Q: What sequence folds into this?
């Protein structure tokens, strides 16, 4: 107390000029301290790469690291079996006027099944899938599938490697419409694209051991890029692809030139609490834009009740995927209902109120059924569902939760119908270097599949910004 009094007295004793010097020095020291603390907080943290082996049985001494080309194939037997099963489907009548409120409307499901049985041409779709070169290579004991698309021309062009990662219940096929757009010439820039299948999804082998989560997938995809000879590249992801590419950027930030995400969330700290409480009245005080307000509020309706209504599957898959998977792995029509319901409500939640779930408003049945066939023919729905269980275990691990920041240059694109909106001011809690943040005028969760042009344009502008083109 005396010391404080002494300081006060000596300060009062100074003349105006010296007072200014003392204050000035104090302020400067304060700024320097804040800056140093800030820099310390911003110091790039990384997630340890770790290691794993997911093959059946014991780990062998060495592993074949060759990259082999692969073709999607089918057979008359496979198609005959599918048709027989579709013919034998047993349906339950929907409740009157229930539309998609109780889940997939089975009257409409019959017409989807009828198209699948009589008009859908799997052989033609297989040829279409094979128009890009497919490969497989063994990593950590399992065969990893990917397509590798080179630009149409690269004369005098800067060719940028980019990996696109899908989620559940999607596949590498979600990106087929943006591939021709990305591999064009964009004023001197073009892309060389790698689209892998997450292990356990489609043509990538399913892990045989427990614990395969987004960290393991991230490490495997980093090894894949290294094996392909890329030391620096861009990443794009939504859904589980977002989780995986974020983990990749956190493991090897030096390899990731930029991370582009169409689904992202942040930690719910004080700032977020404040914007939930007062954001709809005083958005400018908490850093929300008018568009943020439109997308976030009424908060509980949009971010709690809607999410509870639409995510029952997540709870099942995060707890007992093998039980829930029995039926859908055995019945193609059951599988289609289970997966396509997501393509309805995740594209627009209001589609619940349409008799046909609005499915064909944005997608063709050929495209939707091709994605289903990737799950059906490979029998991979159960292993794809297990990824929820493994990742929910992972959330208990501090290293992968929302507190772990992302330091690489990041591009965020917010489609209006995405399940949950995350304003830029919230995302800044987690992504320390946001290079671009775009509000899209339309589109939902499966954005690359639904709005390929909007999607590709945003990826291109993001990379151009970073490449200074
Ligand atoms: C159900 O829909 C039909 C038209 O499709 C309509 O005539 C009928 O009134 C509706 N019933 C109820 C209970 O809303
Ligand atoms: C289910 O969809 C069909 C259109 O395919 C529609 O005619 C029927 O009314 C719908 N049923 C319910 C219960 O909404």
A:
């Amino acid at each position: 107390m005396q010391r404080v009094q002494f300081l006060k007295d000596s300060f009062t004793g100074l003349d105006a000029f010296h007072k200014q010097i003392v204050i000035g020095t104090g302020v400067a020291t304060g700024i320097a301290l804040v800056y140093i603390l800030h820099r310390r907080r911003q110091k790039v943290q990384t997630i340890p790469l770790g290691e794993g082996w997911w093959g059946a049985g014991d780990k062998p001494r060495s592993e074949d690291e060759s990259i082999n080309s692969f073709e999607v194939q089918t057979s008359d037997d496979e198609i005959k079996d599918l048709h027989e099963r579709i013919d034998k489907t047993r349906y339950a009548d929907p409740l009157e006027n229930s539309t998609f409120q109780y889940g997939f409307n089975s009257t409409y499901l019959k017409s989807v099944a009828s198209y699948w049985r009589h008009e859908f041409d799997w052989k033609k779709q297989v040829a279409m899938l094979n128009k890009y070169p497919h490969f497989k290579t063994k990593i950590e004991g399992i065969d990893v599938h990917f397509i590798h698309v080179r630009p149409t021309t690269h004369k005098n062009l800067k060719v940028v490697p980019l990996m696109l990662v899908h989620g559940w219940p999607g596949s590498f096929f979600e990106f087929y419409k943006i591939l021709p757009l990305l591999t064009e010439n964009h004023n001197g820039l073009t892309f060389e694209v790698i689209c892998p299948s997450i292990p356990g999804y489609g043509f990538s082998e399913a892990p045989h051991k427990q614990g395969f989560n987004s960290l393991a997938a991230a490490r495997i995809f980093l090894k894949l890029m290294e094996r392909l000879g890329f030391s620096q590249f861009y990443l794009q992801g939504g859904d589980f692809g977002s989780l995986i590419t974020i983990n990749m950027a956190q493991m090897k930030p030096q390899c990731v030139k930029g991370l582009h995400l169409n689904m992202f969330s942040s930690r719910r700290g004080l700032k977020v609490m404040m914007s939930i409480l007062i954001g709809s009245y005083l958005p400018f005080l908490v850093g929300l834009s008018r568009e943020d307000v439109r997308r976030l509020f009424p908060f509980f309706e949009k971010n709690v009740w809607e999410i509870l209504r639409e995510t029952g599957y997540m709870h099942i898959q995060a707890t007992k995927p093998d039980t829930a998977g029995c039926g859908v792995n055995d019945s193609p029509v059951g599988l289609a209902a289970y997966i396509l319901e997501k393509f309805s409500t995740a594209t627009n939640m209001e589609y619940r109120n349409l008799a046909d779930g609005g499915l064909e408003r944005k997608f063709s049945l050929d495209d939707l059924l091709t994605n289903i066939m990737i799950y059906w023919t490979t029998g991979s729905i159960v292993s794809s569902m297990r990824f929820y269980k493994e990742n929910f275990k992972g959330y208990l691990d501090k290293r992968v939760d929302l507190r772990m920041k992302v330091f690489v240059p990041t591009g965020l694109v917010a489609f209006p119908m995405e399940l949950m909106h995350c304003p830029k001011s919230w995302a800044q809690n987690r992504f320390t270097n946001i290079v671009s943040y775009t509000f899209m005028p339309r589109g939902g969760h499966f954005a690359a599949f639904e709005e390929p042009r909007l999607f590709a344009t945003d990826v291109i502008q993001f990379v151009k910004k970073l490449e200074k083109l």
User: Anything to note?
Assistant: The CA atoms of residues 178 and 452 lie 5 Å apart. The chain has a mean pLDDT of 92.
